[in-house]
Structures are given as structure tokens and as C-alpha cells.
Design a protein that fits this description.
411 residues; alpha/beta; Dna Ligase, domain 1; 6-stranded mixed beta sheet; 5-stranded mixed beta sheet; 19 strands; 35% helix; 29% strand; globular
Length: 411
């Protein structure tokens, strides 16, 4: 494991981020390279223009390679979008041995039974996450291997994606010249970067507010229990500013980053901002309160829709540790305060941690997913299991290997 190089690639709606880490002999991960590029080939987390996506991937990874002084061969890629679906399922099998000792093969059969769902032909499973095992009605078991029993049950969280969306992401990365080690659900990756183990145990909701989507993952008792997606993000705020202030989108983005706020708290009515015109029209001065009147309603809509998704899961009252918001749009001033008002639970801003090296360069919610992908690799991924063009339809088959690695993390 000494010297292992891991690259996380966050292919987002508004930007593509690449983070390269190097694993030391003691298992410490040190950031050695960071790169980013504007993304013009995606819409709501889904690839709509492969050529533009390929160009942006090359730019982001090349920047990270230059900083790290090495060449990248393969990457771990995040996937998001409103095509993501999740469900909790249960599988049950009889113990096969005469002495009734539960073996890894029994565990594998139980997991396979749990994931034997009647999926539409256009959907594919990307994660099968064991939550708990039940041996002869005794629940709450983390690792049943070696125990005695007649009946073994497992409860799992299954995440599915649209096959074409996953294939287009893989194809874009491969055309950029890199192998895909694995595709990972973005909020799962982000959770590894910004959450603590005690938060997962007590119950915590993670909301990754990206450019095109806001991804939700809810944890309780150490396990991921629910995932969902709101098809709105920071780019919608930018579009609202561009239309409302009649200014070009790139200028609207700059105004959002510099002056945007989701709360009227601490707003001084006399504060003004300069708004560039469109098509050569002169710039003009407006009150900052006008900008707040544009930004706040959209952020309130995003957070309200997220609240409805969490409420529907029947897990919100179990979130004793509150919620953590991350992603680029979470940097908008007043977002955490607004979220607390709407959700009724404590909210903090999540930034990447658990890494060494150039940590100051990635201490921003913008890099949560890319850093999380790097953390995902040594915890869950089986080395050597990379994808190729002909493997897209079977790229999720190593369920037992993933199960063993989930044990290491959560149990």
C-alpha cells in the first residue's frame, strides 16, 4: 500500500474537481495535487455533451497532475443527478452447513437475495450497503460470520442509477484517457470527508448542495439509511440572478459569490452593488436588498424541498446530531441559518478533513466530494477492480468485496 496514488474526480454540473492523494506506509492519506475546471457538458448532474465533459476532465486532472508532479492512470468518479433512486431491502437464506455455522458464502447469498429486485431494464445497482444482520430473530448483529444459526437475514440499502447516465460518465472519463476504478454515489463520498463517526451513530443528515442538484444522505446507528436528490442547486440561484438583474451568467456567478446571501440578517439597507449590463449596456448600481430578494427565495425552495425529502423518509426525528451542509452552494452566506429555521435541527457547514498534505487547499465544501472519493478508495474498493468499455453492465458485481470493506468502516 506504500506510495499508492488515489485520484478522486468530482464531475459536477458547474465544475469538475480532481484531487490526488498519496497513501503513506502507515495508511495516512496526503493531498498532493488539486485541479478544477468549469463544466459545460452536464445538466443537473447528467452528461449532455461528452466532448465538453472530456475537455473539462482533461483540464482538471492535468492541473492536479502538474501540482502533484505525477501522471494519473485511473480515477474514482462521483455520480449524482435526479435519476438516483434508493430503497431498503431485506434478504433471507437458510444456513448451508450441517453444523449451522454461518460462513461468508451464506452472507453473500443473503446479500444477493436482498438485491434480487425487479429493476427496470434502464436501471442498475451501484451500491448494496449492509445495515444489519438478523440470525434466528436476533437482530442488531454487525458480523454474523462464525455464529451459529438456522436462518440468516440481512437488511441493506440499495442505490440505483440510470444505466445510460452511468455509462456516459464512464465513457467521458475513458475518452479523457483515464480508467474508472469505480463510480460512487456523491453524497456517500462527501459523507466520508465531512462527517464524524459519532454523528453517524447518533443520526445525521448530510445535504450536498451542488451546482445542479442537492444530494441527501441520512445516517443512523452508524449506517446510511436513506438517500435522495433534489433537482435544484447553486446554478439555479445564478440563473435567477442573471434574469432578475439582467446581467450575463458569468457576472451573475461573480455577484453571487461576492455578495450573495440567503438571509437578511446583518443586511444594511444602504449597501449597494454594481451590476454589469448585457450587450454593451452600461453598468448600474442596485441595493443589496434586491439581490437578497432574488437569492433567498430560491435557497428557501431548495432547503424546503430537501426538508420534504427528509421528512418523507420518517428518519428526521432520529437525526440527533442535526444536519451537515456541504457543496459549493453551501458557502452562500446565511445558508446554515436558513436551514436551521426550515429543518428545525442544528446545522453546521461541512468541510473536508481526515487528510494530510495540502489540506489547506481543500478545506472548502467545494472539494468535499472529490476528497471523499479519495477516502472511499482505501476503505471500500477492491484493488484491481477497474472498469473497461465492455464492463459497464457488470461493473457492480463484487458485492461481497464491498460488504467486507463496509464492515471495516462501520462495524
Amino acid at each position: 500500500m506504500e506510495g499508492r496514488i488515489i485520484t478522486g474526480l468530482d464531475i459536477g454540473t458547474t465544475k469538475i474537481c480532481a484531487v490526488i492523494v498519496k497513501e503513506d506506509m502507515d495508511g495516512t492519506l496526503n493531498v498532493v495535487g488539486i485541479g478544477s475546471s468549469p463544466s459545460y457538458g452536464l445538466r443537473k448532474g447528467v452528461v449532455v455533451n461528452i466532448d465538453k465533459t472530456v475537455t473539462a476532465i482533461k483540464t482538471a486532472v492535468a492541473e492536479a497532475e502538474q501540482m502533484a508532479g505525477l501522471e494519473v492512470e485511473s480515477v474514482f468518479v462521483g455520480i449524482a443527478g435526479d435519476h438516483i433512486r434508493s430503497i431498503n431491502s431485506k434478504g433471507m437464506v437458510g444456513v448451508s452447513r450441517d453444523d449451522h455455522e454461518i460462513t461468508p458464502e451464506d452472507v453473500e447469498r443473503a446479500i444477493n437475495a436482498a438485491k434480487a429486485l425487479a429493476l427496470p431494464i434502464d436501471r442498475e445497482i451501484i451500491h448494496v450497503i449492509p445495515q444489519e444482520f438478523i440470525v434466528d430473530d436476533q437482530d442488531g448483529i454487525a458480523d454474523p460470520v462464525g455464529m451459529s444459526g438456522v436462518r440468516l437475514e440481512v437488511e441493506v440499502h440499495i442505490v440505483t442509477v440510470a444505466v445510460t447516465s452511468a455509462q456516459n460518465i464512464v465513457r467521458s472519463v475513458q475518452r479523457a484517457g483515464y480508467d474508472v476504478e469505480e463510480i460512487v454515489l456523491e453524497p456517500l463520498a462527501s459523507s466520508l470527508a465531512v462527517l464524524d463517526d459519532d454523528e453517524r451513530t447518533l443520526g445525521v443528515a448530510l445535504i450536498d448542495i451542488g451546482g445542479g442538484t442537492s444530494d441527501i444522505a441520512m445516517f443512523f446507528d452508524g449506517h446510511i439509511q436513506h438517500t435522495s436528490v433534489v433537482a435544484l442547486g447553486g446554478q439555479h440561484v445564478t440563473n435567477d440572478i442573471a434574469i432578475g438583474l439582467r446581467t450575463p451568467p458569468d457576472q451573475a456567478e461573480s455577484i453571487k459569490l461576492k455578495y450573495g446571501t440567503a438571509s437578511r440578517r446583518n443586511l444594511v439597507e444602504s449597501d449597494t452593488i454594481m451590476v454589469p449590463g448585457v450587450g454593451g449596456r452600461p453598468a448600474r448600481t442596485i441595493s443589496k436588498s434586491v439581490l437578497v430578494d432574488i437569492v433567498a427565495p430560491r435557497m428557501e425552495e431548495i432547503l424546503t424541498l430537501a426538508y420534504q425529502k427528509m421528512k418523507k423518509s420518517d428518519l428526521l426525528e432520529l437525526m440527533a446530531a442535526g444536519a451537515v451542509i456541504t457543496g459549493g452552494a453551501a458557502l452562500l452566506e446565511g445558508t446554515a441559518d436558513l436551514a436551521e429555521e426550515i429543518w428545525g435541527i442544528p446545522v453546521r457547514l461541512g468541510v473536508p478533513k481526515h487528510l494530510g498534505g495540502l489540506t489547506d487547499s481543500v478545506k472548502s465544501p467545494i472539494y468535499s466530494t472529490a476528497v471523499g472519493l479519495c477516502l472511499y478508495a482505501p476503505q471500500y474498493h477492491q484493488e484491481g477492480d477497474s472498469l473497461s468499455d465492455g464492463q459497464n453492465e457488470v461493473m457492480w458485481d463484487d458485492v461481497l468485496g464491498s460488504f467486507k470493506n463496509f464492515f471495516k468502516r462501520f462495524f
